[in-house]
Amino acid sequence: MRRLAAIATIAFAASLSAFAAPAYAGHGHGSMMGQSMSMKHRCPPGQHWVKGYHKKNGQKIKGYCR
């Protein structure tokens, strides 16, 4: 009986991961961290997302596709 419950638990977990995996595929950037990053950036094929940053002189550079 325990073996059947373990198999059912693994099957359930696998079914959940099958639905969650495509949500992050093909967006051209790394993993999403936190809810503040809910906006997803899309870049053309062959390019990737570069996060925004600050230069040494204090100038802010917004994120862009490279």
Strand line-up across the major sheet = 1-4
Largest sheet properties: 2 strands, antiparallel
Question: How many DSSP helices?
Answer: 1
The proportion of residues in beta strands is: 5-15%
User: How far is the N terminus from the C terminus?
Assistant: 54 Å
Explain what you see:
Helices cover 29% and strands 12% of the residues. With 66 residues, it is an alpha+beta fold. The chain has a two-stranded antiparallel ribbon. Strands 2-3 form a two-stranded antiparallel sheet. The chain is elongated and about 65 Å long.
Give a quick summary of the entry.
The chain is an alpha+beta fold. It is 29% helix and 12% strand.
Fold blueprint:
Elements: H1 2-20, E1 49-50, E2 53-54, E3 60-61, E4 64-65
Antiparallel strand pairs: 1-4, 2-3
Kindly list the characteristics that best describe this protein.
single chain, 66 residues, alpha+beta, two-stranded antiparallel ribbon, 1 helix, 4 strands, 29% helix, 12% strand, elongated
